[in-house]
């Protein structure tokens, strides 16, 4: 059953009839590994490049993978972030994770809910901002991540997603960065 989940939490397993006692017994037998506080995987589980994202998604189900982590997921950057960037509602409680480093970006309204894609990684459903939404977010948070990263993301997006200008313009309006992005779009045209 743990193989089906990919990355499992004890409460998910209890809902399927696996008690915590049974889970701890499986850990002692070496059939299950404890990844961190409240996170377990099968001993034969194959880790992927997006394992950390899957682990964060399991621990913070309300979060959306965004900014540098989403750029990396969509292969729109050469950056390799040391922490996982997630978007949370403005008043949401900050999650505490013992061994994973998080960077929290606060969003509200359409900026949080629009442009969210769902992907399956290691049996876990990831909520990741779409490539166009991620580029717009990079311009919105350019003071935190750097304008050079935002420009690189825009360049890679226009190269990989030809015909995605309408979608990019839509998310630029939602994130209120249309006027900021326009000079860079004009320079690339």
How many distinct beta strands? Answer: 8
**Given the structure, what is the number of helices?**
11
Average pLDDT over all residues: 89
Range of strand content: 15-25%
Identify the overall geometry: elongated
Strand arrangement, major sheet = 1-3-2
Description:
This protein has helices at 2-5, 10-15, 20-29, 51-59, 67-73, 110-113, 131-140, 142-145, 147-160, 165-174, 178-188; strands spanning 7-8, 32-36, 39-42, 64-65, 84-89, 102-107, 116-121, 124-129. The mean pLDDT is 89. Helices cover 47% and strands 20% of the residues. It has 189 residues and is an alpha+beta fold. Helix 5 (67-73) packs antiparallel against helix 7 (131-140), helix 7 (131-140) runs antiparallel to helix 9 and helix 7 (131-140) crosses helix 10 (165-174). The strands form three sheets. Strands 1-3-2 form a three-stranded antiparallel β-sheet. The chain has a three-stranded mixed β-sheet with strand order 4-5-6.
Can you give keywords for this protein?
alpha+beta; three-stranded mixed beta sheet; 11 helices; 8 strands
């Amino acid at each position: 059953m743990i193989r089906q989940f990919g990355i499992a939490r004890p409460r998910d397993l209890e809902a399927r009839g696996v008690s915590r006692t049974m889970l701890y017994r499986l850990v002692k037998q070496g059939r299950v590994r404890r990844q961190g506080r409240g996170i377990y995987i099968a001993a034969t589980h194959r880790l992927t490049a997006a394992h950390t994202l899957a682990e964060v998604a399991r621990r913070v189900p309300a979060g959306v993978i965004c900014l540098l982590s989403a750029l990396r997921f969509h292969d729109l950057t050469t950056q390799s972030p040391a922490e996982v960037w997630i978007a949370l509602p403005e008043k949401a409680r900050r999650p505490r994770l013992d061994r994973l480093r998080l960077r929290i970006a606060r969003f509200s309204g359409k900026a949080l809910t629009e442009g969210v894609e769902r992907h399956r990684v290691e049996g876990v459903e990831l909520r990741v901002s779409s490539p166009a939404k991620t580029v717009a977010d990079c311009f919105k948070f350019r003071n935190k991540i750097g304008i050079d990263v935002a420009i690189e993301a825009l360049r890679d997006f226009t190269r990989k997603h030809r015909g995605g200008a309408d979608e990019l313009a839509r998310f630029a309006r939602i994130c209120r960065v249309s006027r900021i992005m326009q000079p860079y779009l004009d320079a690339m045209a």
